[in-house]
Amino acid sequence: MKELSPQIYKDVMIFDREMEMIFKDAPHYLGHEYTIPHIGDYSTLSDEYDGRMLIHTEDGIKIVSNICRHRQAILQK
């Protein structure tokens, strides 16, 4: 078995390829339903600079855009 070169751990092209192939379609944690327990409750996603938010609707928890289409402004903080 051939050993891997230590340079492989620093190669940006390999890192980018691994991120694309392995992690692109992986599930991402956005938040927990206990933060929005009641219908009408919402929570903005600070990891996404508040660009999206979780909202508790009658149909369950949804993720929606938190950006105004007209002015590209954040709607809720």
How would you describe this protein?
This protein has 77 residues and is of the alpha+beta class. Helices cover 16% and strands 19% of the residues. It contains 1 helix and 3 strands; from the N terminus they run H-E-E-E. The protein has one helix at 12-23, and strands at 42-44, 52-57, 60-65. Strands 1-2-3 form a 3-stranded antiparallel beta sheet, with no helix packed on it. A hairpin with a 7-residue loop joins strand 1 (42-44) and strand 2. The longest helix has 12 residues, at 12-23. The model has no long low-confidence stretch (mean pLDDT 90).
What separation lies between the terminal Cα atoms?
54 Å
Compute the number of strand runs: 3
- Give a quick account of the main beta sheet: strands, pairing sense, barrel closure: 3 strands, antiparallel
General form: elongated
Count of discrete alpha- or pi-helical segments spanning 4 or more residues: 1
- Estimate the strand proportion: 15-25%
Q: Give helix and strand order, one letter per element, not per position.
A: HEEE
Strands of the biggest beta sheet: in what spatial order? 1-2-3
- Taking all Cα atoms into account, the compactness measure Rg is 19 Å
**What's the overall average pLDDT, rounded?**
90
What share of residues is helical?
Answer: 10-25%
Q: Structural class of the helix and strand makeup? A: alpha+beta
- Residue runs with pLDDT of under 50 for 5 or more positions: none
